[in-house]
Amino acid sequence: RNFYYITILRDPVSRYLSEWRHVQRGATWKASLHVCDGRSPTTEELPSCYTGDDWSGCSLQEFMDCPYNLANNRQVRMLSDLSLVGCYNLSVMPEEQRNKVLLDSAKENLKRMAFFGLTEFQRKTQYLFEKTFNMNFISPFTQYNSTRASSVEIDKQTQQRIEALNFLDMELYDYAKDLFLQRYQYMRQKEHQEARRKRQEQRKILRAKQAHLREQSENNSSSTDYIGNVERW
Asked: How many domains in the chain?
């Protein structure tokens, strides 16, 4: 069988706020094993941000203040090969080197995917999916601009803090958006070229039919003239 990896990326600030709201309502990822190189991280490698059953009711400030929060740069971490940096063991290499390896890995894996979309471009995402896999959805994608994240009002300083906490995701998203639009433009050009080729083929067929009809008409005219002459003779 052929398996295709696909993903949908989201604006990092909106995604971060959405996850905070999700956690605030009591969501957890306790079932996630975070297995890497055949083992789960130790509590020392991946400490918890909260005590108790969940982190419900946490403020945005508390959410941002936890240095072990997996919401930080989640998209890069989930797209990259963590084994390249020693999984969750932060002592394997310097932080700057680790960040570069993770970002490069995430970009490469994203580029090699058969398809990826962007939450902020629903119609283009649908178009690319349909063209990539040669299948059509029964209804058009809807662009929802009103989300739980959009309902959160934050000041400029808080936004800058979130961007700083997700600086790898910010860079990945810029890369993804550029690659996504390149793929979209390529598919559109390919579609236009195919449509032009079909039009040219149709015109060619039409000209051939018209030439054939003219030839038949001329042959019929010649036959009529000959029969008329025979009758006179």
From this structure: 1
